[in-house]
Structure formats: C-alpha cells, structure tokens
Amino acid sequence: MGSGKSTLGRALAQRVPGCAFIDLDEEIERRAGMSVREIFDTLGQERFRALEADTLRSLCPPEGTQVCVVATGGGTPCRPGAMEWMNAAGTTVLLRASDAVLLRRLLQAQGERPLLRGMDTARLAAFIREEQLRRAPAYTQALATFPSDLLENEAEIEQSCNNFIKLYL
C-alpha cells in the first residue's frame, strides 16, 4: 500500500514494447461492478480479500504481450498460498519504500483507501510499521526487491523504470 506499484507498472507498460499492465484493484472493481471502497463498505474486508484471490488466480495476460506487470494490493501476498502461486506464475518483485515515503503517500491518498479512513498522522505511522511487520513473512518470499522511494516526478519515474528494466526485463 503506497509503495508505487501502480505508478511503476503503468510507466513500464508505456516504455517497454509488448508490456501490459494490470492493476489488480481495478480488475476487481471491473468484475464486481463497484469500487474497492464500496466492496469494503457493503461486503467487508474478508469478502474483498476472497475476490482479490480469485481475481489474481484468473488473470490472463492480454493477447500479444511478452511481459505482463501486475500490481497487487499490499495485502494480496498475505493470503494463504498467494506468494507460492505468484512465484510459480512469474517473477515477484517487492517494491520497498521507506516508512517516511509511505506515510506521505498514504496521507495524500487516505480518502481512497478504506483501511486508512479516520487515521491521524500518528496512527497512520503506527499502522504502517505494524503492517510492515505483519506482512514481512509474505513479503520476504518475493523473488526480488526494488527500491521505490523515487517515483515522485517524471525524472524519478524514468530513472526507476530504466533501473527496473535493467534488472528484471
């Protein structure tokens, strides 16, 4: 959550020929016919997580693509069996942003994220630390880690894309 998965994924799809990008949350919204926020509000977090797992496992890269980048939600890898499935399906790359960058990004996007509603800055900072610790067992199963603090402007995005391409594509 807030590590820059969608930003980097969209940028890679624009720069790499034959690369497709799928945002898992957007695909869930399309299939459910409602926003993530509406799913959380009407069906609850557990039902959202079940939809997330089902959607992830049913994704197919668009025809004619050589590379497909999928941005999952931050909690996606924490579902039982999720990291094993993702590692078998492709190369998993954990985007690692510092807590300070995560805090700033999540404060800016707080209204769009159901889990963060109503948190003040101190509570959000504590939530980030707690979630990083809770999610660590799943996150450490990623096959690679990529720093994602530098996705704040076009120059940083360009440099991050170039670095990612050199390492993984």
Number of helices: 8
Major β-sheet annotation: 2 strands, parallel
User: Quick one: how many beta strands?
Assistant: 4
Spans where pLDDT lies below 50 across 5 or more residues:
none
Shape: globular
SSE ordering? HEHHHEHEHHEH
What structural class do the secondary elements suggest? mainly alpha
- End-to-end separation in angstroms reads 23 Å
The residue fraction in helices comes out at: 55-70%
Outline of the structure:
The chain is mainly α. It has helices at 5-15, 24-32, 36-43, 45-58, 82-89, 99-108, 121-139, 154-168, and strands at residues 19-23, 67-71, 93-96, 144-147.
Structure report:
The model has no long low-confidence stretch (mean pLDDT 94). The chain has 169 residues and is mainly alpha-helical. It is globular. The strands form two sheets. A two-stranded parallel sheet has the order 1-2. Strands 3-4 form a two-stranded parallel sheet. The relative contact order is 0.18. The protein contains eight helices and four strands. 56% of the residues lie in helices and 11% in strands.
